[in-house]
Write a structure and sequence with these properties.
Strand order of the largest sheet: 1-3-2
Distance between the termini: 83 Å
Strand content: 5-15%
Number of strands: 5
Number of helices: 10
Length: about 270
């Protein structure tokens, strides 16, 4: 028999074998004898010789491993751990029921560990954070980095391949500096007045452009960035209009030089 690799997880000792001897001691040995397909194609006598347990003890354990377990985490084969390979012709040689499931779980864990060790996972997270900074108005920005790579890795790659073959392109628009024609149009002025009726539209728009131009910020959608600026203005402050002695509305003077800094301000 050519042995394979069978990972052991903490659930082995916290499941229904907990406190049951010799079952909990024999089960890891049975797993170690399984090949890459989960087959333990040996006799009970062979297992007894490997473990040093009596043949009667080993036979009784193997019988229990083949029985349904109502409290098992697994629903396959009613929770049984083993099934006979050829029950019609021999009473020895077994297949580990959940072997494939736990091998795949171990593969994902090893994949994540390799990415962490090589720095690939850190680079992926840095790229995700950079994308969020470049486009802070994204509605899903708070979910830019998955909580668990091992839980989402396979499904994510499968969905990505499916979209590539059959769905529309999901490539994100590039972030760009402010276009030269991004000015205070009547439509943008109306958006400001709709949200902030008392705002000096020109001063607020100038503060927005000065702030981002000074920092060479880039956005995929500058109008969405402007909407975010307008939404934040009540909290951060903005310049309001006031009327002079003749009843004509004029802009207030910027206190403490904040207008020159490119930041919105209020009285």
């Amino acid at each position: 028999m050519s042995g394979g690799y069978t990972p052991l997880f903490q659930s082995l000792s916290t499941g229904t074998l907990c406190g049951k001897w010799p079952d909990i001691g024999l089960w890891p040995i049975v797993l170690s004898l399984a090949d890459k397909h989960g087959l333990v194609d040996v006799t009970a006598a062979y297992i007894a010789s490997v473990t040093g347990l009596g043949l009667d003890e080993v036979t009784a354990c193997l019988k229990r491993f083949c029985e349904p377990d109502a409290y098992s985490r697994s629903t396959e084969v009613a929770g049984a751990r083993l099934v006979l390979i050829d029950p019609e012709h021999r009473d020895w040689g077994w297949k580990v029921v959940n072997h494939g499931k736990y091998r795949e779980k171990a593969r994902k864990a090893a994949y994540d560990a390799d990415r962490t060790a090589s720095g690939q996972d850190a680079e992926r997270k840095r790229s995700a954070r950079a994308a969020t900074r470049d486009n802070p108005t994204r509605p899903d920005a708070s979910r830019a980095v998955p909580l668990s790579d091992s839980d989402t890795d396979s499904d994510t790659r499968k969905d990505s391949r499916s979209r590539t073959r059959t769905g529309p392109s999901t490539r994100k628009r590039p972030s760009l500096p402010r276009p030269g024609d991004f000015t205070l149009t009547d439509e943008r002025r109306a958006r400001i007045q709709n949200k902030l009726p008392d705002a000096d539209s020109e001063a607020l728009f100038d503060a927005f452009t000065a702030h981002h131009d000074a920092r060479d910020n880039k956005f995929a959608d500058w109008d969405r960035a402007l909407d975010t600026w307008i939404s934040n203005a009540p909290r951060l402050g903005y310049q309001k209009r006031r009327s002079n002695a003749a009843g004509v509305q004029v802009s207030q003077e910027a206190p403490h030089g904040r207008a020159a800094s490119g930041m919105p301000y209020a009285n």
